[in-house]
Specification:
Blueprint (H helix, E strand, L loop, with lengths): L3 E8 L6 E7 L4 E6 L4 E6 L4 E6 L4 E6 L5 E5 L2 E5 L7 E4 L8 E8 L5 E7 L7 E6 L5 E8 L2 E6 L5 E6 L4 E8 L4 E10 L6 E7 L5 E6 L3 E5 L5 E6 L5 E7 L5 E6 L6 H6 L6 E5 L13
Antiparallel strand pairs: 1-24, 2-3, 3-4, 4-5, 6-7, 7-8, 8-9, 10-11, 11-12, 12-13, 14-15, 15-16, 16-17, 18-19, 19-20, 20-21, 22-23, 23-24
């Protein structure tokens, strides 16, 4: 695609809660989830074809495994899929003692650890947390007292980790030690003002700028590493959930959306709510990190 902020529909999926897009360079496909439907989608931009895999429970995020298949953040904890279409193998139950919670958004760091958070189905304040899954399948709770643990990313030098708590309308930054996977010195980097939607999923581009999806705001915003708003891409859908770069040269921005929580009148005005969208903003993304196990 030539550089353009004009968005197009890549896949008119009518997802209830589309989320977690990630580029799989091995298959040259865009992988993303429909959380509450328990669907893992795979879209091939070369052919325009897509396929769907049912994982049997709500799935908040997926990351490509270096050994093949995917690591998943599920309702019941962390799981693995060896190959597309295989059954899920659970490797950690994470919050087995909290029946009302599920896992949500997640991403891998440079060394191949998988970070993913939780939230209550009832969106109970403070019921969520952020966890780190090591390549030996051990799990560490990193942050507690979250409501909707959401978008995750890292600075280009991997010395800063970004993490969103959606109802707090805040994107936090942490000092990050890639050698140990430790997070420290939390501070508020971006506070999204009232009335424009809530920060949801995010990605970092090749210039180190942050792209943040606005749920309820019908847009994706680009912020500088210092937290300054520099660009907004509007979409014809209210509930924008996440974004990532993919395609040739990682030059296409793929954007997920959700049909949930829209009234009948809103759905009539937004017939493509829940679609996977795409634009070419003239900026490239960073290669996604695999789960190295």
């Amino acid at each position: 695609m030539a550089p353009s902020e004009e968005v197009e529909i890549a896949m008119d999926a009518h997802a209830m809660l589309g989320e977690g897009p990630i580029w799989d360079d091995g298959t040259r496909c865009l992988v993303w989830v429909d959380i509450m439907e328990g669907h893992l989608h795979r879209y091939d931009p070369a052919t325009g074809s897509s396929e769907t895999m049912e994982v049997g429970q709500p799935v908040g995020a997926a990351a490509v495994r270096s050994m093949g298949g995917f690591v998943l953040a599920l309702r019941d904890g962390f799981g693995l899929v060896e190959r597309w279409g295989d059954e899920v193998r659970m490797i950690a139950d994470t919050e087995a003692d909290i029946a009302g919670n599920r896992m949500n958004d997640g991403k891998c760091d440079l060394t191949g650890r998988f970070f993913a958070g939780t939230m209550a189905f009832a969106v109970t304040p403070g019921a969520g947390a952020l966890y780190r899954l090591e390549t030996d399948y051990s799990v560490t709770k990193m942050v507690g007292d979250l409501t909707i643990s959401n978008g995750i990313g890292w600075s280009i030098d991997n010395r800063t980790m970004y993490h969103i708590d959606t109802p707090a309308h805040t994107l936090y930054a942490y000092d990050y030690d890639a050698a140990t996977g430790s997070m420290a010195n939390r501070r508020s980097l971006i506070e999204v003002e009232p009335g424009v939607g809530s920060p949801d999923g995010m990605t970092v581009d090749a210039e180190g700028f942050l792209w943040v999806a606005l749920y309820g705001g019908g847009a994706v915003r680009r912020y500088s590493p210092e937290g300054d708003l520099v660009r907004t891409i509007a979409l014809p859908a209210t509930n924008i959930t996440s974004c990532t770069f993919g395609g040739d040269g990682l030059s296409d921005l793929y954007i997920t959306s959700a049909a949930q929580e829209l009234t009948d009148d809103q759905l009539a005005r937004e017939p493509h709510a829940g679609a996977l969208w795409r634009c070419s903003p003239g900026i490239k993304g960073l290669p996604p990190n695999d789960f190295k196990a």
